[in-house]
Specification:
Layout: H1 7-11, H2 13-21, E1 31-34, E2 38-41, H3 53-68, H4 81-89
Antiparallel strand pairs: 1-2
Helix pairs in contact: 2-3
Amino acid sequence: MPGATKPDQRSGFFTRLHRGHANKVDCAVCHSWSEAQGFGLIGVERPAKPLSADGLLRLKASTVAWATGTDLGRYTPASSSAARRATRAS
């Protein structure tokens, strides 16, 4: 459906899941990766995204930095730009 929002964008579930586990659990618990196959989600038949070994290291480091950072913001449904504008206006 055009313009449909993905479930993780509506609820923030996957964002909260990654923030809570990024520095505690190895990515391989849920994700698959190989230089030939790319980066994907275990049990999901969608094609994996191409990702080099260096790219995987950068992805892990940036995810941990994001998950443990205090000033980068946390996704919640109310964190949309419209909600922020409405909060500032009140």
